[in-house]
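Quick one: structure tokens for this chain, please?
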Amino acid sequence: MTGWEKQKGCTGATELTEKELSMFRLYREGGISYFALRMDAEQMHERRMYLRRVLAEFPRWENLSNDELNDIRLYDVRTGYILEDSGGREFFLQPARAVQEDTAFRRVRAMIPFEFMDLTGKDFCWDRYRADIAEAKDMINKYTVRYPVFRDKGIQCRQLKPKIR
């Protein structure tokens, strides 16, 4: 099957995975034929289940009806998903969690010394400081856990100044 045949809905999608099926609309007479494929009932079910799993993370898109799911396309890009609705409008959906490859890439670029590479906040020796560091420790933990919120507000860690006595 050529790429053109897949786009025009000329033939069925016999050997595609659920992820590949989600990149096409369900072909229907009188429906949108751009990037549409004829699918049997099992393929439609697999495609819908995959779409529901992915879209469960995005509140605006998680409760689409089967008819609405039939008319959308979803394809995976490195940092999220592109969703094309029935009107041809495209939306970028970015997951709230970091992708594993991105995490590894960021860790390498951070230039963390090897002896600290696998340590966590629990491994840090807070008792070495003679001052009361409870507020600073709490601020660091909150910043780490709620980083996406701070990032979206444009707050950087250096803007947060703990009061160490």
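Residues 120-165 form one domain.
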